[in-house]
Amino acid sequence: MPVNCLFLLPVFSFQMTKSVTNPEELGGLASQMTNDYGHLALQGRMAAATAEPEEIGFQIKTRVQELGHGCIFLVQKAGALQICPTDSYTKRELIECARAVTEKVSLVLSALQAGNKGTQACITAASAVSGIIADLDTTIMFATAGTLNAENNESFADHR
C-alpha cells in the first residue's frame, strides 16, 4: 500500500486547518487530498482482498471507506469556507473534519498493521532460517578445509 498517500492525508488535513486564514488555498489542497485518497482506495482494495484472516480485510475495507467519508466532509467544508471565508462556524467545522480525517488515518494504519502480523512473522522466520543456513555453510567451509578439530579420527566427509 502506498504509505505516502496515507501519510499525506493528515498533512493536507493539517494544511486545510491552517488555511482557515487563507481560504483561497483550500481548493488546491482539497484537489490533492482527493487524488491521494483515490490512490489509497485502490491500494486499500488490494490489501483488503489479500489480507488474512478475512476479518482483517473487512476491517481495512471499512476503515478506508470511513476515511473516504471523512475526506468528503472535509472537502465540503473547505468549499463552504471558500464561499463564506468569514464564517466562524464553518471554520470550526473544517477544523473538526480535519481532526476526524487524522483519526481515521490512524485507524487505517492500525488495520494495515494488524493484517501485516502474519507477513512480519514469515519475514522473521525466513531471516532466522537464512542465518542458520549461513552458519551451516560457514561450518561446512571450515570443516572441508580441515580447520575444525576432530574429536576422534573420523573425517568430515564421513559425517557429511
Strand content: under 5%
Count of β-strands: 0
Instruction: Write down the domain tally.
Output: 1
Average residue pLDDT: 76
Tell me the helix content: over 70%
Write the H/E string, N to C: HHHHHH
CATH class reads Mainly Alpha
Structural class, from secondary structure content?
Answer: mainly alpha
Low-confidence stretches: none
Q: Main sheet, how many strands, which sense, barrel? A: none
Rounded to an integer in angstroms, the radius of gyration calculated over CA atoms is 27 Å
> Could you say what the CATH architecture is?
Up-down Bundle
Query: CATH H-level name... which superfamily?
Result: Talin, central domain
Q: Count the helices. How many?
A: 6
Cα end-to-end separation: 46 Å
Shape: elongated
CATH fold-level assignment: A middle domain of Talin 1
